[in-house]
Amino acid sequence: MSKISAENAEHYQWGDACDGWFLLKRDDLSIIHEKMPPQTSEVRHYHVFSKQFFFILKGEAVMEREGEEYILKANEGIEIPPGIPHQIRNESQHAVEFLVTSTPPAHGDRVVIKKVKTISYVTL
After folding, report:
1. Which domains, from first to last, does the chain contain?
2. Are the C-beta atoms of residues 70 and 84 closer than 8 Å to each other?
3. Which of 95, 60, 57 is nearest to 75 (CA)?
4. Of 4, 82, 90, 96, which has the highest C-beta tally within 10 A?
């Protein structure tokens, strides 16, 4: 077994210039180190099967979970059960880094929630 870090882990990019590194990528569990530049966000979504835990390493993030917003600072975290709509945002002027633990892994299990315009009236 060897040490793992963002320097030697599998890397990917997501969203608008955000980075992720697979620290652990198994069939039953994934642990990802992610970095979001200032003023970036993930799309609002939920997972059908995956339970997630977000833990902030550096900076500050806003986690919207089922319509309620939580400000998460370094050394704070939040659990997101399956089926719960959520979105992480970096509204600060500094990068935020965090760990995402997912069981089972969340890739391929994401349902994006699209905003729809409200119709005030309909004429038939």
Report:
1. 10-53+69-103 (2.60.120.10)
2. no
3. 57
4. 96
φ, ψ for residue 19, nearest 5 deg: -120, 150
| Distant-in-sequence, close-in-space partners of 87: CB < 8 Å, separation ≥ 6 | 41, 42, 43, 44, 45, 63, 64
Q: In a structure prediction context, what are the per-residue pLDDT tens digits for the chain, which is 124 residues long? A: 689 998 999 999 998 899 999 999 999 999 999 999 999 999 999 999 999 999 999 999 999 999 999 999 999 999 999 999 999 999 999 999 999 999 999 988 999 997 665 556 655 5
How many residues are there in the chain? 124
